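Give me structure tokens for this 195-residue protein.
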Amino acid sequence: MVRLIVAAVVALAFLAAVAALVTAIVLRRLSRRLLADTHTPLPGSVVDEIAGRRPTFTMTTTAHFAASPERVWGMLEEGAFSWMPFIPGVRYPHTNRGAGTVRKLDTVFFAADEQVLHHDPARRLTVVGIRTSVPLFVKSYVADFRLEQAQDGGTDVAWTVGGRPALFAFVPLSWTAPLIRPFARVVLQQLSTRL
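Here you go.
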């Protein structure tokens, strides 16, 4: 009987590992497909509508950096999140970085076209996720970075993310923010490794 239970547990673990591997392969392929496409900017009214939708999830985290707002801005604007393992980060298709520009966010299992909504160098960067590689789970989102010069000459950064899934958008997911905020804080604080 014990052998049968052990065999069942091993079989379930094996099936779970296979399912995880298949899921990872599918997510990466979806990401690569989105990254290979070129996407023209959406009209400002459409981006404003997406940004104005009430998110089902919102989370804010903050961090302090011993670097000027200009240095922090440079990392957030070009190569954002590339300081994290296995995340290539953000790429712009050209030198234009202003409002209306579409940039690519590339992570291992998720990719998105982000349209710049606010671009105030060394002060504020807001992007709207206008297309994602997993639209059933993340239909759209808004990421807002606000930078302020601190009294010690460093920079205080507030990062707010809000989003909506395509399925079950009526379900409020704000209860997940306290669970995700510590991870997001670590992600933001890792920026200090590049300054």
